[in-house]
Write a structure and sequence with these properties.
heterodimer; A: 397 residues; alpha/beta; Quinone Oxidoreductase, Chain A, domain 1; 7-stranded mixed sheet; 6-stranded parallel sheet; globular; B: 2 domains
Chain lengths: 397, 218
């Protein structure tokens, strides 16, 4: 089959790789109909996540048709399903309390040591996201093997298009959980750093949850425009002093909750971020966290800090004093996708949530490398790229 | 007593050099942790005082102790989740004799001959090597209620030694492929098998799985 494989920093290629097979009883094999490039795929693309190996198939946002099932799978051939990017067994302590991204059984035993050393505990396996999270082949391919297919995949009714439901795999639940983690109350003002897909979904979710005002922060005009269309007020951090603006826009109180939808490769022109950027480049490994640092200073005392943005290691010069002195509450984590797929599918069906507004490009799988390059380099206009294995390559025919 | 003497001598020489001071500090640390004035298992101490090399690990499994005990008690099941154990053949008899065929580096195997040292239904199974075993080993698995009604705490403890002191031990270590890592991974795989009915693998094709590799080595 054809699949997008990782070969090194800024080097991804569509290659021939062997078709996947059912290995364990609860497995299923999907024929991919739609798959997306995620902002967190760019962390791999940029070489910022350790543990990726040449030849790894990337992709953790995908959906498709069931073509083969193991004897323990509850899926049936021909069903259309969306698959959560977190692989979770459904039977361990963490799965039972719906903390699916901390599943104890999906990350193979011999691969748990790395994350156990780095984080103190092993975490759930993720599709196509380095060997730190299990080394499972991802879904930017024609076919994918889905373990624990009786727990994760959600069956999609025929009347919904791929574009409407594909993002149930990651970014919609991630934005939703980001807003939920901000513990929004009816009179709250909420600030969201980053108007990438997760940030935009967090904006949308925060408004659905009843925030009285949502302020979105970015520096790409088109992305700010999308946030505005959702109903947010916006700040361009390139031209505006963010902290001062947030104080003004919240009437001098400070925002009640902040959401960092940026993560470890934040832009930003503060001196400390420049130093962090250099360190990351020379392999000293500190996560750049300028958005998070800014968010912690901007939130009001007693406020909430939600971190859906991805971090992988350590950071320097963290404003721990502000966190403690202001009595902030921090909620974070990889998304417990399985907890949200059903309720969010209902919200898509009844029209509460729209997921299609941020799709900017649809490409054949063969064009995936171009998709990565442009998604990274032209962030203003390339807001979200969907890859279609079945689609004809442009100019090919 | 030995430690006390050494500490005394080292203490007298601290002024001489940093190296000696470091050694004394090491002994101080060693003494601090050898007493075992806490509730942690012996294998969790920084420096265990066991005569032999000792490794151990606990996991919590969301299954009743009886079910786990039942599975473990049939030693023929153990190769399902013990990666370096190719096969266990029961010899029968009152002492539960068994021969373990264990993978060695370079593709060969060694034989562990064991008998059941003690078993307490649903609580504990202990085994030890007998005459003719390639490696001297004592193993024990305990099943106890996990805190907070979260299932069963399973603790695996292995003490091993080989003829020839430290040299023999390093050989044993090589043959057992880093026993500490092995014990940890084996227990995780046991947990996976009991909680999910399968052992997680990121293999893409059946030919890449652990089982396939084992069959090739056999």
């Amino acid at each position: 089959m054809r699949a997008l494989t990782w070969h090194g920093t800024h080097d991804v290629r569509v290659d021939n790789v062997p078709d996947p097979q059912v290995i364990n009883p609860r497995d299923a094999i999907l024929k991919i109909t739609s798959t997306a490039i995620c902002g967190s795929d760019l962390h791999l693309y940029d070489g910022a996540i350790p543990g990726a190996l040449p030849g790894d198939v990337l992709g953790h946002e995908f959906m498709g048709e069931v073509v083969e099932t193991g004897k323990g799978s509850t899926l049936k051939k021909g069903q259309r399903v969306v698959v959560p990017f977190t692989i979770s067994c459904g039977g361990c302590f963490h799965c039972k309390i719906q903390q699916y991204s901390a599943c104890e059984n999906s990350n193979p035993a011999e691969k748990q040591d790395m994350s156990a050393t780095l984080y103190g505990h092993p975490m759930a396996a993720l599709f196509g996201y380095s060997h730190l999270t299990g080394g499972y082949s991802g879904g930017q391919a024609e076919y994918v093997r889905v373990p624990f297919s009786d727990v994760g995949p959600i069956v999609i009714p025929d009347h919904l298009e791929d574009d409407q439901v594909l993002f149930l795999s990651d970014i919609l639940p991630t934005g939703w959980m980001g807003a939920e983690n901000a513990e929004i109350q009816p009179d709250d003002t909420v600030a969201v750093w980053g108007c990438g897909p997760v940030g935009l979904f967090a904006v949308q979710s925060a408004l659905v949850m009843g925030a009285s005002k949502v302020i979105a922060i970015d520096h790409y005009p088109h992305r700010l425009e999308l946030a505005k269309q959702l109903g947010a007020e916006v700040i361009n951090f390139k031209t505006t002093n963010v902290r001062e603006a947030l104080m003004e826009m919240s009437g001098g109180i400070g925002v009640d909750a902040v959401i960092d939808a940026v993560g470890m490769e934040s832009h930003g022109f503060a001196v400390d971020n420049m130093i962090d950027m250099v360190k990351q480049k020379v392999g000293m490994g500190a996560d750049r966290a300028s958005a998070l640092k800014q968010a912690i200073l901007a939130v009001r005392p007693g406020g909430r800090v939600s971190i859906p943005g991805v971090y992988g290691g350590m950071t320097d010069k963290f404003p721990l004093g502000a966190l403690m002195e202001k009595g902030l509450k921090v909620n974070s984590g990889q998304t417990h996708v399985q907890k949200y797929t059903q309720p969010l599918l209902e919200k898509i069906e009844d029209g509460t949530l729209d997921t299609t507004f941020l799709i900017s490009h649809r490409l054949p799988l063969e064009d995936a490398a171009r998709g990565y390059k442009n998604f990274r380099e032209q962030q203003n206009s390339w807001t979200k790229v969907i890859l279609k294995p079945g689609m004809e390559k442009e100019g090919a025919g | 007593m030995k430690h006390k003497q050494e500490a005394g001598i080292a203490g007298g020489l601290v002024a001489v050099g940093l190296a000696v001071g470091t050694a004394a500090f090491g002994i101080f640390l060693g003494r601090r942790h050898s007493g075992g004035n806490d509730d942690a298992p012996q294998f969790a101490r920084r420096s265990n005082q066991a005569e032999h090399a000792l490794v151990g690990r606990s996991v919590t499994i969301r299954k009743p102790a009886a079910e786990l005990y039942e599975y473990w008690r049939d030693f023929c099941n153990l190769p399902e989740f013990m990666e370096n154990v190719e096969k266990i053949a029961k010899q029968g008899g009152p002492t539960g004799g068994a021969v373990w065929k264990v993978k060695a580096p370079g593709g060969g195997t060694i034989a562990l001959k064991t008998e059941i040292a003690e078993e307490v239904e649903n609580k504990r199974i202990a085994w030890r090597s007998v005459e003719g075993s390639d490696i001297e080993i004592m193993g024990e698995v305990r099943f106890s209620p996990a805190p907070g009604d979260r299932g069963t705490r399973v603790s695996l403890r292995i003490e091993y030694d080989a003829p020839g002191g430290a040299v023999g031990r390093s050989i044993a270590k090589a043959f057992l492929r880093e026993p500490e890592v092995q014990a940890r991974h084996d227990l995780k795989r046991f947990k996976m098998l009991m909680e999910t009915g399968e052992i997680a693998t990121s293999a893409h094709r059946r030919s890449e799985t652990r089982e396939a590799k084992q069959q090739e080595n056999a």
